[in-house]
Amino acid sequence: MEKSEHISTILRTIPDNPGVYQYYDSEGKIIYVGKAKNLKKRVLSYFNKDQSENGKTQILVKKIVDIKYIIVDTELDALLLENNLIKKYQPRYNVLLKDDKTYPWICIKNERYPRVFTTRYVVKDGSTYFGPYASVKVMNMVLDLIRKLFKLRNCNLNLSESNIQANKFKVCLEYHIGNCKAPCIGKETEDNYNETIGGIKEIIKGNSNVVAKHLKQELQQQIEQLQFEQAHLTKEKIDLLENFQSKSTVVSPTITDVDVFSIVSDEKNGYVNFLKVINGSIIQGHTIELKKKLEETDEELLSLAIIELRERFNSTSKEIVVPFLLETEFPGIEFTLPQRGDKKHLLELSERNVEYYRREKIKQESLIDPERHTKRILEQMKKDLRLTEEPRHIECFDNSNFQGAYPVAAMTVFKDCKPSKKDYRHFNIKTVEGPDDFASMEEIIYRRYKRVLEENQSMPQLIVIDGGKGQLSAALESIDKLGLRGKVAIIGIAKKLEEIYFPGDSIPLYLDKRSESLKIIQQIRDEAHRFGITHHRSKRDKGTLKTELTEIKGISDTTAQKLLAHFKSVKKIKEAQRSELAAIIGNAKGKTVYEFYNT
């Protein structure tokens, strides 16, 4: 199926997360909404497989000019969101949801001795609702666990205090078979029953550890009091609880009408995600990009985006969930900065969506216009690292030794943010005795840039030293000797906390862990380490070879290499028969090696 350049770029950057995808036509109208356990695989399937077998799908794909998506936590969440969006937008190519069927909830009734049951309708009578559940099987599993753990009433009697005291009720079969403690005749106190309801709420929310801890304390008391039969029943409840895992995300319908906003930004752009939530369900999701003109703050960008998006989607919500409080006042609007609970969960979901959107834009930019992508990263590095020019040419140094032996160093080179492997260099340390990393660094920096100056080569805009203040200071000794102080930027990066050190400044710089500047520095540092270790191992292996085989008089390095290539180790050479050795290196040398190890 032929794809536009825009669609092809989206398909290359779409994430592997569960979520909902939306197809748009040339008029900007949603023509299809679908759910996916893996967004990338599902969306790609529309464009990769032969659509000639399905004429309607072929027509749909031809009409797609844009693709947007909302990521969620689980496939079940995607199913719920898909249902909401289809009902709201009724896309042309989706199955029409003509019935008024809704997903079920678990209700804890607002009454004395509350009942716990399932319902498809949320009634605003003060009762507590949990759901909706996209899988009835999962919901029934939760209810089954509750019934096994707790003894609850399932009758609809009016258990008012006056009715119980007047002895209006008699115990039923549920009491006799052990499923109910008969609060109807006063055999269970209201406080004890409400404590049970509290435990049920924790389980439904996924906080089963709270209930498990309480049961374990109860079990310990029963054992101490020699109540072994009760202890056995409690142990069975603990086992049930530990084996239970709910796979459905549960939200509260008390979130009746809320807008959720989140923001991420970089040097040139801000990205703002908007989620519209009604009765605990997301019915809209959209992300916009804002171009910075005058280094606007995140607060300024978010304020502008809130006005724009609420107007665009005709939102009249009186509550807005935000990642930080705004100084700008919005008359009649309450801003919420959640610390925990369902609103916090929704904010985190919005933050994940806006971050994915930003990453996708960056990936698309790197595919469509690599030079522009590189330019943006270099500008960010220039700002982050306090440089006077963009670091298009970077050189990084690392040294290695093994207990002071075989000291070597490596230099890796990045040009325009990419490795330039033809410019990588190895160094054997010549003037330093013993394991002195500082002196080794001083030597290789001097040798490298003395040669650059003598041969009139181009200098890098940035030198990166793998190490902290000590290594940087050693490198600066050579920079000063060569008269390059102030002519080339140099920094050190310490591995432990990834601190960036500058000459003459004892206080390190800590870049954001997600910063592209830090990622480039880490990448070239890791390359230097890898490249140096490879050279170091090679040199160490050659050194080991000399101390083992070349001690034998008449055995050269070439002969030793032949033996090792065939036998793979010195140990096997020692164990070899004379005839085996002679077959590889000849009778005379074979006899020499054999007698060296066997006399």
SSE arrangement:
Elements: H1 5-13, E1 19-24, E2 30-36, H2 39-48, H3 55-63, E3 66-71, H4 75-89, E4 105-108, E5 116-119, E6 128-130, H5 136-149, H6 161-165, H7 173-176, H8 190-205, H9 208-224, H10 228-243, E7 257-265, E8 269-278, E9 281-291, H11 298-312, E10 319-321, E11 334-336, H12 341-368, H13 370-384, E12 393-402, E13 405-415, E14 418-419, E15 425-428, H14 437-454, E16 462-466, H15 469-481, E17 489-494, E18 499-502, E19 505-509, H16 516-548, H17 557-567, H18 570-575, H19 578-585, H20 587-598
Helix pairs in contact: 1-12, 8-9, 9-10, 12-13, 14-15, 19-20
Give an overview of the whole structure:
With 599 residues, the chain is of the alpha+beta class. The protein has five domains: 5-89, GIY-YIG endonuclease (3-Layer(aba) Sandwich), CATH 3.40.1440.10; 107-243, no CATH class; 257-366, Alpha-Beta Plaits (2-Layer Sandwich), CATH 3.30.70; 381-540, 2-Layer Sandwich (Nucleotidyltransferase, domain 5); 549-598, DNA polymerase, domain 1, CATH 1.10.150.20. It has helices at residues 5-13, 39-48, 55-63, 75-89, 136-149, 161-165, 173-176, 190-205, 208-224, 228-243, 298-312, 341-368, 370-384, 437-454, 469-481, 516-548, 557-567, 570-575, 578-585, 587-598, and strands at 19-24, 30-36, 66-71, 105-108, 116-119, 128-130, 257-265, 269-278, 281-291, 319-321, 334-336, 393-402, 405-415, 418-419, 425-428, 462-466, 489-494, 499-502, 505-509. Helix 1 packs across helix 12 and helix 12 crosses helix 13.
